[in-house]
Amino acid sequence: MSIKWKRLGEHALFLSPSIILTVALGIYPLLWMLRYMFYDYAGYGDALFVGLDNFRRLMRDALFWESVGNTFVYAGGKLLLTLPLSLLLAVILNGKLRGGTLLRGIYFMPTIISTAVISVVFYTIFNSYNGMVNTVLMKLHLVSQPIDWLGPKHAMLTVILVAVWGAVGNYMLLFLAGLQSIPQDLYESAAMDGANAGRRFWSITLPMLAPAAQLVIMLAIIASLKGYESIMLITEGGPIGKTEVMYLYLYKLLFPVSTGSPVEQQLGYGSAVGFATAVIVGAITGLYFLLSRKMNKLY
């Protein structure tokens, strides 16, 4: 056996676990979904071919379109709070701050904590009757009566705040890595020319940070549109569907185990919903990618 074929066999051997897992957990489920989205299938018994009926039902499904709207509200609120806060923390920790390493670990810690643990803790904190938030607000005389944080009026705000708390540390580190790649000579030269801190930030930091920021924003958009775990554990999409997002609605169709789920498992219709959800997320991500490339050409 020649050295070329021997090396090819070694490469195939090293890649085989990843290839097997990709096929078993990625490609096969995708092909399975693409097939059954044209069937009426509950997960057991015979699958009845219905053609495009699942997509016709999807177009008339008010709950799905409400979940799409809720997803945009949730993702938009999360992005508007998370990205500026992450950048601010990264800029602060990039300076010569005492205890900066410890603070980085503290801010990053929510990223590695289980979503279930985070959700249970925040469910307790925002409890309408004896939650910590209402207790503090009432002791400070900022409110006269407890706020129903998990009610129809404030539930979306609550789950957004929980999502922000869990995501800030992750994007902070990504921004921090981008900041540390900027040559310090640029700041020294600008300081010698009389540029103040604000001018150095707008003229050096932001332009030099743009490539890293584009990646961070894209990852944040995808994560925000696909997020549902903490919502499922805190509100289950309620009350009255106010926090029902696309992937949570899809989860309930495929795995109806919670109290807010459909009575019957709907794998056929769920596959159609999954396909439509993937198209929406892919379209938004692709649109952002195209816009970012055009911005690169302009600047």
What is the gist of this entry?
The protein has helices at 3-36, 53-60, 62-94, 100-112, 115-125, 132-139, 155-180, 184-192, 197-226, 229-234, 246-254, 267-298, and strands at 39-40, 48-49. It is mainly α and 299 residues long. α3 (62-94) packs antiparallel against α9.
Largest sheet: 2 strands, antiparallel
Termini gap: 54 Å
Strand composition percent: under 5%
Strand order of the largest sheet: 1-2
* Radius of gyration (Å): 24 Å
Q: Helix and strand string, N-terminal first? A: HEEHHHHHHHHHHH
Give the structural class.
Answer: mainly alpha
Instruction: Label the overall shape.
Output: globular
Total strand count, please? Answer: 2
The averaged pLDDT comes out at: 86
Low-confidence runs (pLDDT<50, min 5 residues)? Answer: none
Fraction in helix: over 70%
Give the count of helical stretches. Answer: 12
